[in-house]
Amino acid sequence: MNTKIFRSRIRNSLSNENLQGALDANAERRVKGRLAAFSSIPDYQERRARAHAIKADVVRRLDEHLEKFIGKVQENGIIVHRAKDASEAVQIVLDIAEKQKATSENHVHPRSSESQLLFAKSKSMVSEEINLNHVLAGHDINVVETDLGEYIVQLRGERPAHIITPAVHLRRQDVGRLFAEKLGIPYTEDIPTLTNTARKVLREVFLTADIGVSGVNFGVVESGSLCIVTNEGNGRMCTTLPSVHIALMGIERLVPTMGDLALFLSLLPRSATGQKLSVYTSLINSPLQYQTRHLVLLDNGRYALRASALAESLCCIRCGACLNACPVFRELGGHAYGSVYPGPIGSVISSTLIDPRFACLSQASSLCGACKDICPVDIDLPGMLLKVRAGQSPRWNGKEGVGLPSIVKLGLGFFCRVAAVPWLYTGAQQIMGLFPLPDWIRIPAFTGWGYSKDFPRPAASPFRRRWKRVNREEGTPTEEGKSDAKTAIKREAPGETGKVAPTRIEPIERFTIELRAVSGDVVRVSEKDVRLRLAKFFGERGIDRVLVDDAAAGYVTGAATAREQDPSIRAGVTGALCGIAETGSVVLVSGAGQTLTASLLPEIHIVLLKTSRLVSTVADALCKPEVRQAAAGVLITGPSRTGDIEMSHTIGVHGPGELHVFLIDE
């Protein structure tokens, strides 16, 4: 993308009132939600520093970590593919698709009358980076995005406008008109109705897909585990139901241990969506009994970044927080950037991972530092934006000042020479202050000033002179006074506001409070009363059939138990490996029959959890050997939810809309 196109998009974004309203609402809610979520971890700055150190070490020793990770993944039975660029990655997916098509033609298949392969795809920024959907469509493969926001922009023929919230640029009226046109429903602006419509359409996709595709948030080196973080349940559907699962992962998305994963899980959801933990944190170790799993590890410029001045950008965990904080993104939205990766992080990495011409995006920054302040991994984004401007992007072969007109480069060069000499700079500032530009003189629009930012008026009296005058009038501050002033202007970071010593809360009470805070329900019951209480629950809801796993089968009476994946079954009952007090989560692992599907397909999910199996923290749960040994597991924190339409919190998307935990006193 050249500078002229970028400026045209900037003008269009600034003049789009609908877009401005949508972006304002997103930024306000995201920032408030993030601050509230981080208030529960007063050691945020310490966690942030640890996370940065861990990721920096991973980047520094990437080859070593990759070799160990690949070995563990292969030991677990997952097929690993290495792709040096986008074309290789797409070809790997095409080869897998051809093999699956040949297999389907030789066996009875629920859609055997159709020639097109069906891909059910969960949200993946890597897939956008390699332009996967477009290429697969050219090979007669039907790819359906199943994340609500991604599904909406796919229907509109657009790219995602945000790393986390793909449809951030749209209002409910836009979605209502889209669904009326594309899905044939009556026009409505009711967000739950729109969400339920997408659920019904996409449920058939999940149940009949030949191949599921997902991204990977983290790869755990010590165990070869793949961690996928979602809220709606579509990620679990794509990785659990199809007989073939393809995971796409950038080579930098590694953490050394499960303990390190717990640290990053305390930062990612809070920064991305303002949650203590996302609804579904899936852990994939190996294929399920009926499955083949593939992992595609993508370079596509990451090694080049690692060897450059922009190596720190590989520490990014794709939370999208820098987009929400950036004053430029908050005015332009993602589509103005033209790249898959917008905002501050996109302005750093796009010229290497996507196209060298995206180096001009580095000019779309005020260098205010908001992106660095909010980054949960403490990446120096302003510093790297300056390096891109200086021509240090690995694939950029042009000169420094990319994206700037010659007249602006000339002016900045002159300014640098003047500013380097204190007496000359002071004199020039005084002269400019005495003879400021009148309002009727406009800086030419092609310089970048005038239509998207204001040229600052020089002050007649330099700051240094005013500072000295104040000191003479009020006296020079003492060292104690300087210390007080520093304390007064210190920014409060998330987790520091109103810091008080934590009150001790018993695990059962803490678990109950946290689960109810995310719209889950807790029922305290004795061991001897479990069957009776379950039967009563089924009777009150008119439920006559339930999907159960082996751990819960002995407790279910008053309803017929089923093992098949019947979409008409309204309730699923599962046991739980453990519960996590600090987040109100339950941990489920495969190996107990229908554990994963019973917790996913029905609209109501009931979990049987013994109080003795409560643990305090996410780290305690992840370090359990059962989590590492199971083919797959999931941390569930409340019923499925989405905020993809106007950031409106809507319960019940692809996963269950109700979560009831029967907490059993032994």
Could you walk me through the main structural features you see in this protein, from its secondary elements to its overall organization?
This protein is of the alpha/beta class and 666 residues long. It folds into four domains: 1-39 and 309-394, Fumarate Reductase Iron-sulfur Protein, Chain B, domain 2; 47-147 and 209-300, NagB/RpiA/CoA transferase-like (Rossmann fold), CATH 3.40.50; 406-474, no CATH class; 507-665, Rossmann fold (3-Layer(aba) Sandwich). Strands 8-5-6-9-19-16-15-18 form an eight-stranded mixed beta sheet. Strands 1-10-7-4-2-3 form a six-stranded parallel beta sheet, with helices on both faces. A six-stranded parallel beta sheet has the order 11-22-17-14-12-13. A hairpin with a 7-residue loop joins strand 20 and strand 21 (650-651). Helix 17 packs across helix 19 (381-389). The longest helix is centred in the first third of the chain and has 22 residues, at 17-38. It is globular and about 90 Å long. The protein starts with a helix and ends with a strand. The model is unreliable at 108-113, 478-493 and 497-501 (pLDDT under 50).
How would you sum up the global shape? globular
Overall mean pLDDT stands at 89
Class from helix and strand fractions: alpha/beta
Number of helices: 29
Number of domains: 4
* Main sheet record: 8 strands, mixed
CATH class of the largest domain: Alpha Beta
- Kindly identify the CATH topology of the largest domain: Rossmann fold
**CA gyration radius, whole angstroms:** 27 Å
CATH architecture call of the largest domain: 3-Layer(aba) Sandwich
CATH superfamily of the largest domain: NagB/RpiA/CoA transferase-like
Helix content: 40-55%
Low-confidence stretches: 108-113, 478-493, 497-501
